[in-house]
Amino acid sequence: MKRAVKALIAVYFALFMCIFGGMTAFAVTWDIDHSWQLIRFDEDKVPEGTAFADILIKDKWHDKYAVDFNEENGEALGVDKDCGLAKYDKDGYTSLLLRHNCAMFDYSIQGNIFYSLIREKLYNRYRTVKVAYCDKDGNVLGVTDAVKVKLASHKNAVYSFDVEGESLSSSVSKAPELRLGISDVIIITILLVLIILIILRRIIKYTEKANTKRMINRIRSGEDDNESGKQD
Question: What is the three-state SS of the chain?
């Protein structure tokens, strides 16, 4: 009986963790913005000393995303407000990462692919962009020609920029949906509950069989004792 109680407690604990974990996962993914961009460039066709690349966007009058310096991105990139990229302002083009608060630098892969998380359909607002090659200190080593970005008609767009020397091309696609909807969480929780109930039922059956077997053994043991007493 003690084993059954312990098993029952374990099952309830597992059920609680599954439901709580599922709802936590739902809560976390609910607020994630999956819009992002990547900049790909050929390492053999970039200025010597290039450490990262950034998008240059043309500021609009009273731009709501414009800031003097984005300290969070500056810290991530290891540059300060006095670096060349932070001060760059030519023909109205300024740094997306350092002079705006609508993008967050994430990480680089294999040295020639840079990811940034951005606000949804950002380039429906900033239609013409350039790419700046920068060294580790944030000095601008070179700038590409401008390219007009296609409009994103769907939510959670992925913007890809391919750079080759001064040539720049762009494309937009749909980001893979990673969110868990309410229906997904409910279905997963129901399945987990069913699995746990099946396990619990088997534990109870096993416990009942074990108890029945013990009772039969005790009865048989008692019968044997009685027969031996009669013979004496």
Answer: CHHHHHHHHHHHHHHHHHHHHHHHHHHHHHCCCCCEEEEEECHHHCCCCCCEEEEEEECCCCCCCECCCCHHHHHHHCCCCCCHHHHCCECCEEECCCCECCEEEEEEECCCEEEEEECCCHHHCCCEEEEEEECCCCCEEEECCCEECCCCCCCCEEEEEEEECCEEEEEEEECCCCCCCHHHHHHHHHHHHHHHHHHHHHHHHHHHHHHHHHHHHHHHHHHHHHHHHHHC
